[in-house]
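Q: what does this look like with adenosine-5'-triphosphate bound?
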Amino acid sequence: MTTALNLVNVSLEYPDGGSTLKALDSVNLTVSEGEFLSLVGPSGSGKSSLLAVAATLIRPTSGVVVINGQDVAALAEADRTALRRDKVGIIFQQPNLLPALTAVEQLLIREHLRGNPLKEARRTAGELLDVVGLSGAEHKRPHQLSGGQRQRVNIARALMGSPSVLLVDEPTAALDHERSESVVRLLRRVTDEFHTATVMVTHDTEFLPLTDAVATMRDGRISRALVPSSRTLVG
Ligand SMILES: Nc1ncnc2c1ncn2[C@@H]1O[C@H](COP(=O)(O)OP(=O)(O)OP(=O)(O)O)[C@@H](O)[C@H]1O
């Protein structure tokens, strides 16, 4: 099983008055292609910080982040941006869709802004909307979609460009139980079909059995890992 995301001894400190606050404390984490890991833990334990470091949005104070075999710190800024764009899909709690754009346009906007030809991207976008169960809704704008459908557009958008790593921050926080379950099931299916290394921060413990492994954070440390399958190495 190929490792897609590897954090080695990663620490992150924020300035805190005259001293520092350790948001991540010597975190080790390995997630393989096709593996779905849940990340749980109390508020302030460092879950979002871990996602931000894994997404290459924040540089750790120390330690190594490897995505798809590439040591992120060794990359020049432009290469790091390209790695994030091409290899990392990020799904936040709120879909952050642009109100004026249709579902398919939400998926195409990045290609459009880059001036890339849209023919191929349009085909991919249509296929991805189909995967997430939105065929027929391609031309609807966010206000014409339900909360669950908007989150599905968000997931499809994150899959544009075939990321190796999918980082998902509380995708069900704004959804009712039924829609939450279907979104987590969709993330399970997407992980299986696209072989992404998926890390999902969640408070919904009832959906943990849909994932391969659970890592628990406390005070910046990954303190415990339940490993229902032998596919995950944490800690
Ligand atoms: N930009 C920042 N500057 C300073 N401290 C921060 C910053 N972001 C987070 N922190 C602190 O780092 C610690 C970890 O925060 P983080 O948001 O990663 O935790 P979390 O587990 O995601 O919490 P939640 O479940 O509430 O989102 C907390 O003590 C938080 O106050």
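Confidence is low (pLDDT under 50) at residues 229-235. Helices lie at 47-54, 77-87, 103-113, 118-131, 147-159, 177-194.
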